[in-house]
Amino acid sequence: MLPADVEVTSDLDRAMVLENSQDLPEGYGVWADAIEGGVYDFYATEEGQQGRAIIEPEADAVWTSRGEFQRALNKKKIRKTITPFEEFWATVAYSILENLQYVSLGRFVKGESGEPFLERLFQIYICGLYPCGLHDDGRIVALDPASLAGFEKLPEGVLSR
User: Fold this and answer.
1) What gap in Å lies between CA 104 and CA 87, rounded to an integer?
2) For 122-159, how does the pLDDT look when each residue is reduced to its tens digit (9 = 90+)?
3) Are 100 and 94 in contact, with CB atoms under 8 Å apart?
């Protein structure tokens, strides 16, 4: 279930500014700092290194298996037939994979309950949204990729909000 305080946006440009900019509108924090803060306490610990030795090779295999799919998106981009949703996916896929690695690592180190901020990200992903920004008060902003042209709905029940 989507955390109640998550701000959902359908504005891709705003989402990308909140995710990538160091020069943010007033009232927002730097997204990369929030992610780093989620893993800071355990990433470089001995237990974190043990977890990364298990998780990272698995993530690399997942990334490598995208080969044909990624090539197809690259061809669409060159031919200028790529949809906004496909372009969004091609842009953020690796970031999503990294964040899910952090969630896994948090669970490896801290147990099933994981690290609270990373667990909130995971809940947002489960709901089919893309977490991308942070208000100064800790509320997360998430893009609804279903609002992008070219998004194809998943079968009913795969994701719930």
Assistant:
1) 26
2) 999 999 999 999 999 999 999 999 999 888 754 454 44
3) no
Query: How distant, in Å, are the alpha carbons of 52, 91, 110, 130 from that of 107?
Result: 12, 26, 5, 20
Reading the block at residue 68, the tokens are 């044909």
CB 85 within 8 A of CB 93: no
- Say if residues 125 and 7 touch (Cβ distance below 8 Å): no
Q: What are the boundaries of each domain within the chain?
A: 7-147
pTM of the model: 0.87
